[in-house]
Amino acid sequence: MTSANVVKVTERDGALLIEMDNPPVNALGIALRRGLMAAFERLARESALKGAVLTGTGRFFSAGADISEFGKTRENPLLPELIAFLEDLGKPVVAAINGQALGGGLELALGCHYRIAAPAARMGLPEVKLGLLPGAGGTQRLPRLIGVERALAMIVTGEPIDAAEAKTLGLVDDVAEGDLIGAAFRLLEGAVARGVRPPRTRDREEKLAAARADSGLIDRIAEPLLKRQRGLPAPRACVEAVRAAVTLPFEEGLKREVELFAQLVNSPESKAQRHIFFAEREAAKLPDMPADVRPREVNKAVVIGAGTMGGGIAMSFANFGIPVWIIDQDHESLDRGLARIRENYQITVSRGSLAADEMEKRLARIHGTTDWSVLAEGDVVIEAVFEELDLKQRIFRMIDEKARPGALLATNTSTLDVNKIAAATSRPEDVLGMHFFSPANVMRLLEIVRASKTSFDAIATAIAIGRRIGKVPAVVGVCDGFVGNRMLHRRTAQAERLLLEGALPQDVDQAVVAFGFPMGPFAMGDLAGLDVGWRIRKARGTKAPISDALCEAGRFGQKTGAGYYRYEKGSRTPIPDPEVERIIIETSKRLGITRRPISAEEITERMIYPMINEGARILEERIAMRASDIDVIWVYGYGWPVWRGGPMYYADQVGLGQIEARLKHYAETLNDETLRPAALLSRLAAEGKGFSSLPVQPIAI
Ligand code: 3H9
Q: Does the pLDDT value for residue 70 go beyond 90?
């Protein structure tokens, strides 16, 4: 891409219109930076030119720096220099913010002398979500425009604001209804006519006054913001950079920002977060999908089953404007399900995260019925009933009879064979798994399970639906538990063993939380309910001695006020319980196991490494296309800390040799064959390679 291709410059009435045209998002890579610099230099050079309007094409002003350039040698002009040149140009430049202006894109607009936005524009500094801070002057210029309090909130949370709010805060001078570029040129004309020196954001000091007069202000504002960010380096650095805007002269503040940015860009946390950014976008790309495949049109959804899962799935559709029917076999379950949906929305409204009228709009999109004929209405039908193959097959026969030709038919099974479910229909090419995670209206992961006869356009449709309802789709193959739960089972087995060998639930949970998960496996078990697994084990004839013992004692988790922990009435805080300790010790004794002290290090390794080992097997079997898909599944479905980049990425950082050695050690000392290193893991370890060296592979069907 040459700079001439990505920047269009046209002359209009003695001024320039500079358009960034670097699809898909106008990322400020080297070609765009050079093109902009050339345009700004021309503006400076040609005395007949009185100023310029800078805008973007498409939905984006600019989504910021080109993230793929980080960690490589970056070429001049760098973004901070480009912006400094623009700000000092001496001729007015108006940013016409046509769409999203994010990160370096917003920083570029902050360097302009005036800003005008389209009503649909959004502006934000999301660098913190990549483990970074705004490194092209954003931490110095934004507080000068909107004050320290709001600037800190935007920079530390990374959340964007809309055009109306930007106007109220003074981030933009105006919002243009209608012709944005025309309005931008009128603004430019007015500035030229006034003949004043173009105002530089760097010179505006008045909004820093409050923080300068009160040395404790920044920390008071920052404290609640940082609390939510789990002690990560980037949010703290964001605060330090904003502090520099207040305490140092502009140039020195900029220097401090650059220093902090350089530290962060090389930090393991940011590298992991950037890995996940790209991995998330790869996880729905199939190497064998023909380029001309298009998703089918979807305007209406049908969900079968008004249970917790079905309700959450229906809410996901309604939240994004898609009307949805819920079918259940009896009125009572249906009414209970619909009431639960209303209750869930009401909780969100009472927390202030949803307006009451928006709740009503969403509820109005959800219809309940016991009449199976509405199956014919659905462009997508999602079955979310009990995990019983017979039942699901019966339902799919009914779906096959009634659903319209071309409808996408999905099962939300988390364990069953999607091929067997598809075989119950006369159109297995339309059938796949859409595995949502609980609570389905909140969790972002969507495992899309490709069965052996699923057509490409069915998969493309499921991906498109997933994106439309705010999910992160990852396409996987058929096996017991698919990718996420199959790996989770390895962790659960070790967690149970650790209890038998000498640990207590709180020891295991603490190690897992210290690693970065929001919750340990036992607190999570209590939240989900222990009785479900107990029932499945009884049906399958398998055992988990401690969990079984707890269930036999009526301890089903939070819902009974007791599980691996006890709970005070109305509280969700787990409290270690001597009664549980007694049950655990007794079970160890009954099974003839001598308990021993177990270190936090051993717990962490046995919580993490067996999952990585299972991930390797999953790759061997071509259930996943890439190691990074597994990372995405764990980050978005199971709370794996994003700053550790997912299990397979983490494994590469630790070194596969080390992981292999520890697994061998545990397999031998614990006499546990499930811990034997997978062949793929051993091969890569022997070659000194990581999972990231593996080429993308089509899913085995
Ligand atoms: C920064 O600015 C640092 C500065 O402060 C300092 C510098 C010195 N770079 O997400 P989509 C690609 S840090 C490179 O599917 P959407 C993306 O990979 C940056 N590539 O579309 C994908 O590629 P592919 C601060 C980028 O409409 C394609 O564009 N900015 C970038 O769902 C389409 O993306 C951010 O953190 C990028 N900056 O969402 C914003 N952005 O098609 C990051 C996107 O090959 N970006 N791509 O898979 C986003 O949040 C979303 O992409 C966005 C669009 C909301 C913009």
A: yes
Domain that holds residue 35: 3-265
Looking at the fold, whether 326 and 433 belong to one and the same domain comes out as yes
Cβ–ligand 1 distance for 130 under 6 Å, the answer: yes
Tens digit of pLDDT for each residue in 442-468? Answer: 999 999 999 999 999 999 999 999 999
| Cβ within 8 Å of residue 565, ≥6 positions away | 505, 506, 522, 523, 526, 574, 575, 576, 577, 580
Best residue among 1, 22, 36, 67 to mutate for probing ligand 1's pocket (most ligand atoms within 8 Å of CB) is 67
Q: 574 CB under 6 A from ligand 1?
A: no
The pLDDT, as a whole number, for residue 197 is 92
Q: What is the pTM of this model?
A: 0.95
Q: Is residue 187 domain-resident?
A: yes
292 falls within a domain: no
Rounded Cα distance, 444 and 532, in Å: 23
Question: What is the separation of C-alpha 273 from the centre of its chain, rounded to a whole number of angstroms?
Answer: 10
Answer yes or no: are the C-beta atoms of 595 and 604 closer than 8 Å: no
Question: Are 111 and 83 members of one domain?
Answer: yes
**161 CB under 6 A from ligand 1?**
no
Q: Which of 19, 87, 107, 269 is catalytic?
A: 107
Residue 107 known to be catalytic:
yes
| CB of residue 279 inside a 6 A radius of ligand 1 | no
Catalytic: which of 87, 127, 257, 447?
Answer: 127
E-assigned strand segments in 550-611: none
Active site includes 41? no
Tell me: do 405 and 329 sit in the same domain.
yes
Q: Angle CA(277)–CA(280)–CA(282) in degrees, nearest 5? A: 110
**What CATH number corresponds to the domain at position 635?**
1.10.1040.50
At 349-358, the pLDDT tens digits run 999 999 999 9
Q: Specify the number of domains making up the chain.
A: 4
The pLDDT tens digits of the residues spanning 541-589 come to 999 999 999 999 999 999 899 999 999 998 999 999 999 999 999 999 9
